[in-house]
Amino acid sequence: MTFNVILYEVDDQILTITLNCPEKLNAFSGEMLDDLMQAFDMADEDDDINAIIVTGAGRGFCAGADLSAGDSTWEGHEERLAVTRRGDGGGELSRRIYRSLKPVIVAFNGPAVGVGLTFTLAADVRIAARDIKMGFVFAARGIVPEGCSAWFLPRIVGISKALEWCFSGRIFKSEEALEAGLVRSLHDPEDLIPAARGLAEEFIQNSSSISRAVLRQMMWRMLGASDPIEAHRVDTAAINQMAVSKDAKEGINAFLEKRSPNFPGKVSQDLPEFFPWWEEPEF
Hints:
The chain is of the alpha/beta class.
């Protein structure tokens, strides 16, 4: 598969997706959306990939939507969506990352603004370089936040901080993002990708790929559950089926034998029968 505006590199079970339009600070476009959607589809189907890192080429992570068409940028947008997609591009990408069967880490190497920030909210962990600019600038452009951020952002930083950032449309620094919990940690530029890879290696070193796929969806989808009983039902189905799996047997034997596990399960073919337990909502 050839990509036009991203790089797709797999090394030691870790896929690094690099947004690759550095001359435009990796501004988000329909072409970038298509590449990213395809990349996440491929990653889910590839058992040699166990974690995903998303970063940017050059000075920026993603400068937001490509506004090179000026004040006519959004003209015909609704008609195009009716023909080509079910909803706005940022939301389609956020929902695709939400459905990922592999852990997703975002490494902000430079400015992240607008959709360049909202789509990352569906990742599991975000880390950033020091002193980079970030912003939910939509109200300052006369529109509203997209990318399903009204669902994700308050869950990550709380409703007050989410509204403060979105009402003002102001640019803030990664240090403020760290304080609010939007990012996990800050790093010098040369240490950013090594830190992301270190996290990815920690995720995958001693855990089952099947367990990671199931528990990732359990955690995210239970954020919207109305009662703990919903989690209890999923827990029960998972334990009933997974506790007698090949991976569970290997995990127990590795523990008793005081060695690292070598889990045989493959996400492409060994997910438990109850998975997925939800119906994908229509747009």
